[in-house]
Fold:
Amino acid sequence: MVRAAVLPAVGAPLEIIGIELPEPGPGQVRVRLAAAGVCHSDLSLSDGTMRVPVPAVLGHEGAGTVVSVGEGVDRVAPGDRVVLNWAPSCGSCHACGLGEVWLCANALNGSADVYARTADGRDLHPGLNVAAFAEETVVRESCLLPLPDGIPLADAALLGCAVLTGYGAVHHSARVRAGETVAVFGVGGVGLAALQAARIAGAPTIVAVDVSPEKEELARSAGATQYVVASADTAREIRALTGRQGVDVAVECVGRAVAIRTAWESTRRGGRTTVVGIGGKDQQVTFNALELFHWGRTLSGCVYGNSDPAKDLPVLADHVRAGRLDLGALVTERIALEDIPGAFDNMLAGKGGRALVVF
Structure:
């Protein structure tokens, strides 16, 4: 019996209960979690913005230690330190064939599995494959990445989503070059990672935008050179900070129509806007044909930072070891399982960076 945060139904409060976790079967691995990050995607799953089979154990950003392995597992062994990969690529679909593993058509197939049961016999699904909001989990071997040496195990949880997404949005999707100016909308976990990534890329001007004035110090510590409190004049303020041109690149980490539109308006003529935030179907963004022609801007979506976790994790580890990337700076509170609902409330209120569940 292990303790876990269970979503009994879409829109229902999380239940912190004991669950029956089986020993790993063929191709499976049991992992003892050291930590799990509370991501906005977990909130989107709980409120129905994104679909998930329920009841489910949520949590997709985690790191821990291998406890036991099932038959046929040969990439990891008991005692290995690992990062959970919630979107493993199958290697055989059309997207994988193109090298776009972040768009793998089969990446989330495991979410429909029954991987555990409650004490009263209810089947449980692993939210986004890995069910990290639990003391231990059982996952497919493909959902694990070996953690490079020299990285604190608890902080390594952030590599599984926030950092891969924020860093990838800057380096893979927007392809920020040294000397380009950048604006990051939303100073949560992913936004803080994007700010650090922009600094690593060599952006001389990095504008952080958020609705909360209290996040300025947090943003500047991550690399922001300017801070703008979101308002109806945000695009105008950003253009004023960049010689009336606008930034070369805007990275939107909010998922709201007004933020996407403002990010687009904040870029220079010919600039690039990358949308990372996950919004609901009700968030409609509109453009007219003439402005699309005139401004010549690029607007693109970004899934999981357009990252290949197996290739990018060693690169991120090098940045961490060299002191260029500070994982701990993304964390504004370290909490217990029971505190996850409160972390959801803080995200809705726009408070803090990343909350990290430490086991």
Notes: The first strand starts at residue 2 and ends at 7. The mean pLDDT is 96. The two ends are 15 Å apart (CA to CA). Residues 189-201 form the longest helix (13 residues).
